[in-house]
Every structure is written in structure tokens, then in C-alpha cells.
Amino acid sequence: MSEQRIAPSIARTFYGLAITVLIGFIAYIGRGVLIPLVIASFLCFLIYTLKENVRKTPFIGRHIPNWLSFMLAFLLIGAGVYLFVEIVRSNVETLLTAWPSYEERLRSLTQDVIAWVRTSSLIPPEVLGSVDQLQQAAIDVVRVVVSRAASSLTAITSNVLTFITIFLYLVFMLIERGRIFRKINLLGADDRERIVINETISDIGVLVRQYITVKTVSNLVTATISFIIMKLIGIQFAGFWALLIFILNYIPIFGAASAITLPVMLALVQPEGGGLQMALTALVLLIGAEQIMSNGIEPRLVGRTLNLSPLVVLFSLSVWGSLWGFAGLLLSVPITVTVMLVLTQFESTRPIAIMLSDDGKIADLKHPPEAASEST
User: Fold this and answer.
1) Does the pLDDT of residue 375 top 60, yes or no?
2) CA dist list (Å): 89 to 77, 96, 164
């Protein structure tokens, strides 16, 4: 009897792994089609959330028609995307124009460090001869990295076809949103299964919208505070760095560190007023603002409803980042939350959902086998 039970379990595990590998292969091969589709879905969630907030506006919200609230939310998102593109374009062009002065400042700083090293006797004399070559090699590497990063940002914001594709996906998603949910509901074999499908979709929608809303508000507040700090300190391109802080903070674990590192490095080599003191001041204040939001305020708003293990978050970042690049990093958490919620509603996949969760506590099964046997 035990062998008869083990064999189907091994078969299910094998089929599950095979399906996972197949999905990963399809996600990688079809990333050109799937990434705009998933981004459009992300924006659709955001627009729907904004639309609900517009309807909750005191005094006038209840008098706004549903179609008008959708239109206002759509225009707000569109204006935000347009502002993002224009800020990136203008600041990248200005940064590339001003880069020779930054490079000269970087060269001056490294020469000061080399002069200190020569007088401190920390490095053997036979090694000192290659220090100048290392300095030039490091500056060349920085120049190449800046040039490639600027080219990548320009390419992203100039890809008209991708923006048109996302726009079309988004429009048709908003138009067919109700019909799509009704068709998914019809997949249930009976009323009980349809109720389960509706409740699961509702749970997914609530959690993903909550994550997007809280994360967006938190990132906006963090970026605004960071912008004020950088303006007061005197860091150039403060608006551009604040925008990057807003975007990169969607990426768990690594996003905040990357967003803070860039303006701090700029403050170090800034020709006008830059230096170690400005860089350290920016580092302390920006880290303080980010930590207050991410560890103090944001957890109180979102709580532990996502219930994802930090190891799972890190793994999902690696997987989706490898498959879809930067877009995968941004979308890794909403995708993983959705997968975990779906897995909780099937008896055979609940152990996987438990392993993905942070504390092992997952949602109750909405269609337990006992209930199904009693109804029959």
C-alpha cells in the first residue's frame, strides 16, 4: 500500500517540475510578448486602485460616474509615465554633456588617494609603478559603465513600439476586465467551484492592489524626502535621482541600496562642492529616510499580509531577473504572491505554498475535500 501511495506522489512531483521548467522556458522565449502584457496588468491594477480611491474622495467621489473615475485614473498614470520619460531623457543628456567635468574630478580624487598611498608606505615600492595604470583602467571602466547605462535608459524611454504595445494591452484589459472575470468564473464545474474561483481571484486582487498601493505611496514619500535632502545638500540632478529612488524601491532587498548608491557616488565626484563630506552627509540622510519608511512606516501599512519568506523573495528576484531582466525584478513580488495564493487553494499544492510563506500560515482551503464529499 505504501508503494502504491508513493508512486503517484513521485509522479505528481515529476510532472510539477516539468511544468515549472516548461513555464520558465516559455517565459524566457516569449519575454518580448509577455513583459509588455505583465506590465500592462500591473498598470491595470494601479489604475483600478486609483479609480477606487477617486470614488472614495469625500463629498464629490460618490457623484463621479464610474467611467469618469476610470478616465481620471488613466490620465494620472499616463501623465506619470510621460513625466518619467521626459525626466530620464533630459537628465541623461545633461549628465552625458557634463561627464568630462565629473571624470576630471574623479581623476583628481584618485590622484590624491595615490599620493597619500605613496607617502604612507602601505604598498610595496615595486607595486607602486602600476598604480597609475590601475587608475586609468578604473576611470575607463567607469566611463564605459556610465555610457552603457545612459544608452540603456535612452533606449528604454525611446522604444515607441513597446509603449504602444503596453498602451493597447492596457486599454483592452480595462475594456474587457469584467468579461475576462466572467469567463474565468465559467471554468468552474458547479456553483461551489465558481464561488471558490471568485474568492481566490478576489484574494489575489486585494493583496496585489494593497502591495502596489502601499509600495507606490511609500516610494513616493521616500523619493520626495530624498529629493528635498539632495536639494538642500546641493547634489546635482536631484530630480533624476529621486525618480530612480522611486522606481528602484519597487525591487526588494537590492533596489533601495542601488538607488542610494548612485547619488552618493555623484556627490563624491561632483565638480561644484562635491567631496567626501557631501557624500557622507548624503549617505547618512538618504539611508535614514529609506530606513524610516521601509522598516518603520511601510510594515505598519502593509503588515504581514504578503507573508513571503525573505529567502523566497531573494530567489524570485534571481529567477525573474534572469528571465526578464529589470522588468522581472520589478514584477517578481506581485507574481510570487499571486502564485502562492493560487497554490493555497489546491490540496496537492498547499505544501508548496507553506514553504513559500514566511511563517507557514496560509489561507484556509475554500473547497475542502470533506465538503465536496458531503455535497455529493
Assistant:
1) no
2) 19, 11, 18
